Amino acid sequence: MTRIPHETSGEPNPLQLLTLDRLRRRTSMKWRTYPEDVLPLWVAEMDVPLAEPVVRAVTDALELGDTGYPAGTAYAQALAAFAEKRWDWDGLAVERTAIVPDVMLGVVEMLKLVTGYGDAVVVNSPVYPPFYHFLEHMDRRVVQAPLGADGRIDPGVLEETFRQAVADGRRAALLLCSPHNPTGTVHTAEELSAVAALAERYGVRVVADEIHAPLVVGDARFVPYLSVPGGERGLSLMSASKAWNLAGLKAALAVAGPDAAADLARMPEEVGHGPSHVGIIAHTAALRDGVAWLDALLAGLHTNRRLLADLLAEHLPAIRYRPGDATYLAWLDCRALGLGDDPADVFLRRGRVALNSGIPFGTGGAGHVRLNLATSREVITEAVRRMAAALD
């Protein structure tokens, strides 16, 4: 059961353990895209050391030379145990899972199973930009069903979008982001059940990107899409990558509902050769042995959300910020600042803070920025100071 996180596990807050100088030694995208005078609070990488069980598992594998091709169901078994303990969900059947290289490539493979060239795929904008890029690359027609003003799925808008998506008699799918990126919205059981009912009514298949599922804080509770009534025909993609900062160790799981098992069985065998064997070892260790570290992280993120809200209220009160219940991303409405459609450009040029522009997130993104909260309190404080100074 999801709970309000607190640091009682003995684990220190991992967000406070690395200095900026040490972080700048990293060679990943976050730290190499911009010059050193820029504070990078954009791409979804966390400023944390890895959980010790993950380091130990990967080190042991490297010392053993265990760097071959992936095999077995250890990852799925670890995820099933985590899901039962964390989300009270015992419906993740290992036999209805398959390893895939990562969540987005898994999304592509799942959509290939339930849609064809030119078919519509519905997304709830504003949403993770790679949704658009991957769908367009695979020649699917992207149809937006924008979220409501409250950042939640609007059933009326979704129904009308479904109706239009299947009007020509072709297949259609919903690519559901749950929890939602960038808003941090955690869809409720009632909302997901309504989505499932509409999908059944219009013959729309649901593929759920649930990569941020472990990153829920406060009183909210993550509900797996496959667990709600009507979710039996759904397909889900899950991974430990976001919650344990393992994006560079590629591995994810495709999970099928009971009535979608035959679809998953049609996935080509070679897709399962794509994940990193070492990545699977890392992800398995995270889910199995890294929960204390995760709780410490969630406690730190909870503190950072409050800190950002306080700093914005003091220094940039015109920015609207509704803290989400999940992810480590903050969606900031900067339209009242008068900076145009792309305030991220202004904050980068004038303030030397790198944020994600809201424009690539689709409808509802203009005038917004996405800020990565998974860093130290000191970096967040300096970033807001720079953002405020950029307006002078």
Summarize the structure.
The N terminus is likely disordered.
Topology at a glance:
Blueprint: H1 20-23, H2 29-32, E1 39-40, H3 52-64, H4 74-87, E2 97-100, H5 103-114, E3 120-123, H6 130-137, E4 141-144, H7 155-165, E5 172-177, H8 189-202, E6 205-209, E7 235-238, H9 241-244, E8 252-256, H10 261-265, H11 277-289, H12 291-315, E9 320-321, E10 329-333, H13 343-351, E11 353-354, E12 356-357, E13 368-372, H14 377-389
Parallel strand pairs: 1-11, 3-4, 3-5, 5-6, 6-7
Antiparallel strand pairs: 2-8, 7-8, 9-10, 10-13, 12-13
Helix pairs in contact: 3-11, 4-11, 7-8, 12-14
Describe what this molecule looks like in 3D.
The protein is globular. Helix 3 runs antiparallel to helix 11 (277-289), helix 7 packs parallel to helix 8 (189-202) and helix 12 packs parallel to helix 14 (377-389). The protein is α/β, with parallel strands linked by helices and 392 residues long. The chain has helices spanning 20-23, 29-32, 52-64, 74-87, 103-114, 130-137, 155-165, 189-202, 241-244, 261-265, 277-289, 291-315, 343-351, 377-389, and strands spanning 39-40, 97-100, 120-123, 141-144, 172-177, 205-209, 235-238, 252-256, 320-321, 329-333, 353-354, 356-357, 368-372. Strands 2-8-7-6-5-3-4 form a 7-stranded mixed beta sheet, sandwiched between helices. Helices cover 38% and strands 13% of the residues. The protein is built from 14 helices and 13 strands.
